[in-house]
Every structure is written in structure tokens, then in C-alpha cells.
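Subject: Sanity check before I submit

Could someone independently write out the C-alpha cells for this chain? I want to compare against mine line by line before I put it in a report. The sequence has 483 residues.
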Amino acid sequence: MNVSTEIRCSDSEEDAYEDESNGPFPLNRLDSECRDERGIPHKTTEMQTFFHLLKGYIGPGCLSLPWAFSQLGITVGFLSTIGLSFLTSYNCLSVVRVFREQIGEGQATNDRTRDSSRKEITYADVGAMAYGVKFRIFVTFSILTQQLAICTIFFSFIGENLISILHKLSGHDGLLDKKIVAITLSLPTVLALSCIPDLRALAPVSKVGLVMLLASFVMLGTAVAENWGEHVSPQVELSKVPIAMCAIMYSFEGVCLVMPVEQSMKHPKKFNRTFILAMVTTCIVYSSVGVTCVMAFGSISNGSITAFLMNNSDQYVGVDWVILSNALVTLSVLFTYPLQLFPCIGLVAKIVQTRSLSDDSGGVNTDFIPLDTDEMANERDEEPTTEDLQDLDGPMLRAGLVIFTYIVAITIPNVQELISFAGAFAGSATALIIPPLIDLKFVLQSNRKTSLAAIKCYLLLIIGLVFGIIGTSASIVDIYKVW
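---
Independent answer below. Compare away.
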């Protein structure tokens, strides 16, 4: 950041937009609203971009990886993490490449500088470049499903951890040890925090949540060190392979993050290498969490490693560290929930407004229109503005979304099944299926259907479909069995 230039947003506001977003809405608004005195958005350096990506990928979802590695075994879990990291990263970069090819390397930056009110290009907009406005709605709906799944998992995660804390304090099973009761106890706090009107006001809460999460990781690491090598590493459970891989897939749902981050860079041409470095680092962190926890604690049967350790505290040493880690991560997730809800609010409002505009105009042309034409600019000007979205951003919408995620969380028994379903259904759509579909559209414009480039897209699409179908089916069956 240039210290001689005044930026119209505080550091705390930047943190609120960036922390644990896993979606396009917060970072997109950050890049649109944090401008200098000339109205030009602040451009990020390579280092800032690197940390934006890490903050988007690494979060409470890491605590479900030990369960996945426990089901797959250390070797298969490690190889699965590398494989899914490669696939999702390649697809992320393919979306960026399509955007650059269709709009031009420097046009987005020039347009943004020339017209500070011009909206940033999102993942859904790239989908519209390929297949029109209806496909944009489909992509937006897929992102919304993914984001609501994250909020639901947060509720379930709070319930699992709260049960373990209450059981430890009471010393026996009782009414408070029921998941529905534990999640319900957190509902009033979640509703209250979700009514915070904007991200500026939410920033202190989000920052406290981030500090608590980091502290919980340190305490969990201490417990790992004290229990290292004490337990036998589990073997592969073939029946659990699909849902365990989906749990890993859940952690890599960051494709929605790349467009706003890439466009906010001072030198977008350096994004690819920065992104690759961030993904390699993320893969190392994920693998380290999964491998070290399994090496230290053996077979893990709960989607929350801290809740598992609390429930089996008599088998391990360093229980005090685990109790503190569990309490901190529970509060961290509780404080982070409202931040995850913000993209849902914006996406729901945008879908409603877009459909309304389509109905009022008698339907919207869904053919691809190059972004540098006046017609496309006019179409984008007709889309919902920030003021339009704020009209729909009321307590009823917020409460409705919170209650919806609450109902789903108390309906699905265990957090690991919920994480696997989210990874299979929402994750495969946004990270494995939509990107090759977008790429294929433009590949076929200049290549034959049997060309190498087209075959590559077909193969990636098949992998995404197979992963999504098998993973979703296995997750639903597993949920049904447990329920």
C-alpha cells in the first residue's frame, strides 16, 4: 500500500472482506469499494495476493481433514490431497485464462481505472461469457449452494464441539449432550451477530474470530507433539473412500475467490505464479494437518478433530490443550459465521433482482456478447447495483437464511457427513464441472471436437461428473444410514 495515498477503507474493513470468504461477494466488494482519493481501486502486491489466497483457503475446514486421512490412510489421503489440489488449481487457472482471452490482458484494469463505478468481473460473469445470462444464474446458484453449505457446516461444527465441551464439564450424558440442543443454544447468538448491518461493523468480530482460530491451531499442535507416535496409523476403509475424498474436496472450494483476487493485483500477469505458490503452501498445510493428527491420535471418528479429542480425552495426554483449543475454535466458528453469511445475502438478492429484470424486459438475451461492446456494458449497467441489493438486505432475509442452515444442520446427524455432501455436491459443481464447461465452449470455437484441447476438457468434465455423482450418492447413502 502506498503510504502517501489515502485509502477509503480501514484495515479492519479489509480484514472483514477477506477473512475466510470462500466466495466472490466479499472480496469483490472490497476491490470495488476500497479506493484511493482518485477513485481508483487499491492494487495488491504479489505478497498481499498470496496471503489473500491463503486466508481464503485455510480455515476451520482444516479440522475435518484428520477424519478424512483416518478413513483413507495416510498414503492415500496424502495422494488424494495432491490430486485434488492439482485438479482444482488447474480449473481455477483455466477460468482466469478464459477471462483474459475474452476480455484482453489489460482491458479489465483499464476499464476499472477509467470508470470507477464499473462492476468487477466475477466467476459467474465468465460463465455468462460462455453460455449467456441463464448460465450465469446457474453458476451463481451453485456458488450460493456452496456458501450455504459452509454456513450449515459451521452450525453443525459448533454443535459437535459444544456437545463435547458440555459432556466434559458435566461428566455424564444428558439433555445438553443432544446435538439439536447444542446447536439451538448457539442459534440466538448467531441470529444476533447476523443482524450486524455491514462488514465494517462486523470487522472487529471477524478479527477476534481469526485470532481465536490461530490460537486453537497452536494449542492443537501442542497436543499433537505430546501424543506423537503413541497410536497405530489406521488402514484404508474402502467403504469410506468416496465420502472421505469429498471431505478433502470441501477444503479446496476456492475457485470463486480467484477472479476478484486476480483483478485486484497491481500486476495481474504475475497472478499465475503467485496462485501456484499459494496452492502449494495450502496443500502442504492440509497434508501436514491430516498426517500429523493421524500419526499422533490414530483412528479418528469425528469430523471435528477437537471434538473427537474431547470425547476421547481419557486416551490421550495434553487434555488441557485440547479443551482450550476446542473452546477457541468453537467461538471462532461462531464469530465467523456472519461473515460467511454475507455472500449468501448478496447472492440471493442478486438472483432475485436479476430474475426481476429478466421478467420486466420480457427475457434477457443469453447469447455471448463480447465484454468490450456497448451492448454488454448496457446489460451490465442494468444489473443490480449495491443500492439495489441493500434494499433486499433486511432482517427477514438474514433470519431466513440462518434458520434454513440451522434446520439442515440439525437434520443431518454428523458434521463429517455434511462436509462430504457439501464437497461432493457443491464443490464438484463449482470447482470440477463448471470450469471445464466454460473452457470447452471457447476451445470448440477454434478447434475441432477431436482436438487435444477439446479432449482435455472432455476428460476434466468426466472426472468432475464422476466425482460429483459418486461422491453425492455415497454421501446421501451414508447420511441415510446414520440418520
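---
OP: Matches mine. For the report I'm noting this point. Residues 70 and 406 are 28 Å apart (CA to CA).
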